[in-house]
User: Fold these one by one.
Assistant:
Number 1:
Amino acid sequence: MSLKVNLRLLEKESIQLDGDVPASELAPDFQDELMRLAHPVEYELTVERQSEAVLVTGSLRTHVECECSRCLKGFLLPVQVDDFSLLAPLEGEEAIPVDGDFADLTPAVREDILLALPTNPLCGPDCRGLKPKGQARELQVREQAEPNTAWSALDNLKL
Ligand SMILES: [Zn+2]
């Protein structure tokens, strides 16, 4: 079921919208190397009619399948928007899509869910990442050693 609200009913009273929408329907174009919207987005919304707009308030909740940007471990990240609030105009450039009597709130909800996603998902605040310290040091030593080998090769040429 998609996030549609009957504008004719809305003229009489506010409407409660509770349910969930598949992430594939909410954000079909979403692509990220480290995140996948694989779980439905649950919503609990109250929709009220204002003069030339609808006021939508409530909360959104989902889980996002992530890969840690430091250690590449897979984990499930809870994403929640507790104070969702949107005044969506019914006319003009910023208007939400209206089909007959129904206004579609999907684009509005998508935007807030995407804004709630982290730029670099981390499995935990203390994640130390992939490389243990010993390996990193070994790499440094080798990098410092290389110019020396180049010089000695040059010395050999001169001889
Ligand atoms: Zn990690």
Number 2:
Amino acid sequence: MKREETIPVQLGSVIIGGTHPVSVEAMGRTNPASVDACLAEILSVMAVGADVFRVAVPDEEALDGLLEVKKRSPLPLVADIHFCPEMAVRAALQGVEGIRVNPGTLLNQEKYSQLIDILRDQNLVLRLGANTGSLPREHREKDRVEGLFESISDALELPEKKGFSQIILSAKSTEVEETIAIYDRLSRSFPYPLHVGLTEAGEGQEGIVKSSIALGTILRQGIGNNIRVSLTSRDPVDETQVANYILRAVGLHQKGIEVISCPTCARRKGDVVLFVQKVKKAIAHFDRSVSCKVAVMGCEVNGPGEAREADLGLAFGPSTAVLFEHGKVVRTVSQENAWVEFMNRLYDQTQKS
Ligand code: SF4
């Protein structure tokens, strides 16, 4: 897949854009005023593949907390600050790696100008993020894609006049079609990396499907440098995992352990659902830099054949489990011993990768 090349932008330890891999942003749920809780969230999303952590900063107390979090955070932070440019300026002065500015809540051009100067002097990043829910007043009556585009174009004028280019753009809609259209237009119009997301996608399966179609389509067009999935969920681990599954499904993510499993049917000879749940729980603690594909199948009829590509597979037989590697049967064990045998071999596979 050919990727659209953009200016590379250095956000702390992560480079977004250029020829660098698409990275994943997670957004915290806790107020950073609760410093330890916020840091625990950062560690939890990092464990499932987040590269960047965005934090809403609603007030001064939250900003004080964020500055403490920054001292200990292993991930670069993006401070999401609305309506209060003074706080954005303060966050930048304290070296928070990225400041997210929404053109619809950017009320003070003088402070915006000051913010850009600080970001430039400190080598920090401006993330300009428009949203259909908060378009600037002058663009609200327009077609929503046009409104998003115009609000980004307007907000870019000042930094471009100042020669500042460490900018990441995003323009999010709640609609799949609009999201695909606006990112296509941004990609054709500006040289900056794009943070891609569908806003307010919803809860559970519905949100996952909408996000997957929108982000998958955009990424398959070679567009996008950083993604976030926005799900109605108490735990940002959920959306981080979905973001990584999307990257893997479109062929942009080769790391980690991919689990293929059959849906099960009346032919199944073992509890595939339970086995897969146990595998997923166990691999959550594996080193994410390994690359490996495993398969769990409910019967021997289609097992090795369906998962020929897998490094390691297991197909249940009548009271047995057949283990196969790269499509070839390597051992048959009782179902009681299947778990231990499978995990031992999985460990060996990850050592090889
Ligand atoms: S692998 Fe076997 S149990 Fe699973 S869906 Fe296919 S036929 Fe059914």
Number 3:
Amino acid sequence: MRACVTICPTDALTRDPETREVKFDKNACIGCELCIPACPMQAMEVHF
Ligand code: SF4
């Protein structure tokens, strides 16, 4: 499981079981930014 998916408290980040892509649900995101330091590749950014 991706660290960002695991740490997201609202399930805004999920992993597609077939493509293994991380999907983002903007409506579920609360902007807590926990996913930013969780990513070992600094791939996450939050824009509002
Ligand atoms: S900023 Fe959004 S996507 Fe990132 S952990 Fe928080 S709720 Fe989830």
Number 4:
Amino acid sequence: MQGKLLYNEPLAQYTSWQVGGPARCLYKPVDQEDLAEFLRKLPPNEPLLWLGYGSNTLVRDGGFPGTVILLKGTLNQIRLLSDTAMQAGAGVGCARLARFAADAGLIGTEFLAGIPGTVGGALALNAGANGGNIWELVTEVTTIDRNGMQHQRNPQDYTIAYRQVSGPENEWFVSATLNLKPGSSTEAKERISNYLARRAATQPIGQSSAGSTFRNPSNGVEIQRLICTVANPCGRQPW
Ligand SMILES: Cc1cc2nc3c(=O)[nH]c(=O)nc-3n(C[C@H](O)[C@H](O)[C@H](O)COP(=O)(O)OP(=O)(O)OC[C@H]3O[C@@H](n4cnc5c(N)ncnc54)[C@H](O)[C@@H]3O)c2cc1C
């Protein structure tokens, strides 16, 4: 094993809430093979927690009594597969993915630019913004199980809902293949800039949080509009 193995590692530094006690053990693999080898050697009942950027994870003060697999800064390759397909490792940051696609003149991932998570975390939660959700782009994912075995899965293997995904048990994402459209790189970059500017103007970026606390209702109304209307019924709306 060539990865980084840490014992009794405080998790606060790995989450956007910046709170949480220690993990009994934390492993950051160097690549997929190394990850497979590590998983094969784990006791079969070892509790596992996968972490990307930790931007949707709240760790309790008591910490995690098992092993954390950290993908931040690893499994972070992006490959163009064709004029319309791209493969990204689970540790790729959503922002980097969006910029890479825009640079390559591929359209569809711009909404990911402001989401402060990894592809793995985005797949686990069907992350989305500005009307887009990551699973709408996915044609195939590669997963790994507790024995280090790799599996090719497609969206039909999962139940995908608003910020919720369930699928084969005891498998975790190592990469995803996305289907995109060829288009204008300049326009894609402009959309990214606009999305980021809107976020910067409306969200307390940089403060400890996990983003939204409320879910959008199913009638298409954005929750932030409802909250502002309730909090400020007669006032001018901020948009
Ligand atoms: C300021 C801010 C703004 C945000 N804005 C948005 C937004 O616009 N839209 C949105 O959808 N979310 C948003 N979020 C929430 C968060 O960024 C997303 O949910 C993101 O997808 C989480 O990715 P992550 O890598 O940080 O996941 P983590 O927090 O590390 O993990 C989240 C969950 O995914 C699991 N997981 C992580 N990696 C894997 C893997 N490889 N395989 C299987 N499971 C895995 C973890 O075990 C955990 O259960 C925001 C958060 C913040 C702090």
